[in-house]
TrEMBL record:
Natural source organism: Reinekea marinisedimentorum
GO molecular function, a single term: metal ion binding
Entry-linked SUPFAM superfamilies: HMA, heavy metal-associated domain
Protein name: Copper chaperone
PROSITE patterns reported for this sequence: HMA_2 (PS50846)
Length: 65
């Protein structure tokens, strides 16, 4: 599992945007993002750089990976 800490999400719409962006990355099987912990948990076999890029393209910042 890959974990990314993401800054900038403030509502459930943001959660959906992040989960949608991550889900579309090649190799991703499952995504769960928590507004409380700011942690995205990603299962499958995806490239961390590609995941980070997808989050940033969606308008959020990865602050730890
Ligand atoms: Mo809700 Mo999150 O309108 O940007 S989607 S704050």
């Amino acid at each position: 599992m890959i974990e990314l800490k993401i800054e900038g999400a403030t509502c459930n719409g943001c959660v959906k945007s992040i989960e949608k962006a991550l889900t579309q990355v090649k190799g991703v099987e499952g995504v769960s993002f928590s507004l409380e912990t700011k942690l995205a948990q990603i299962t499958g076999n995806a490239d961390k750089e590609a995941l980070t890029e997808a989050v940033e393209m969606a308008g959020f910042d990865v602050i730890e990976s």
